Write the structure tokens for this entry.
Amino acid sequence: MSAQSASDLDRLLARRRELMSRDTATASFQSRLRELREWQAARLARTYADLHENPRYAQAVDFFLSDLYGPHDFAAREREMMRAWRFLRRSLPEAPLHALGRALELDVLTAELDHAMVAALPSGAWTESSYAQAYRRVGRRPDRERQIELAIRSGEDLDRAVRHPWIGVVLKTAHAPAHAAGFGVLQDFIERGYRAFKAMGGAREFLAVIRERETALMEALFSGARK
């Protein structure tokens, strides 16, 4: 999503509202959706456990697992985006603003794919086999590729942001006003990302590992290598 386009934001939020207005917004469906997201989050934690053990990457792994690929519902962040967009365009530097926009697009796309997965999965406990079969049944390979690309590009935006010390000053200055204005969820997301990438001291290797592993997993699932 272009950080400059309010129409893009409107379309994303309309997609999210469409998801929540369907019959899939029932309690039983939402319960299965939470189970799916928790299962996927556990997979991510296993996949990147080695990076998390490295002090250089630990904060960045936590950020990706909680704020980008996490099992949480980011509806509050989206509501704030809808209210705050004009303010944010004027007050935030370009790099973190782009990261926020991409995170929103990633959340909406992930929600759409997760809803499709729940509809395709049989009842009962998750298994590697049932997950892989549902993944292939849903298909949507371009969306899966876009999902990976959005996560990487969000990280690249944050990596650019931390190269400019003045952005840290801007974020610190904006903290109290943003919370007072009711935009604390958005502000905290940006600050967590900024701190995580600043602590890493360069994200190229980290993002390359994420791209490699997520792409390899996607290829394995589509090919049937993972039963």
About this structure: The CA atoms of residues 60 and 196 lie 5 Å apart. The radius of gyration is 18 Å.
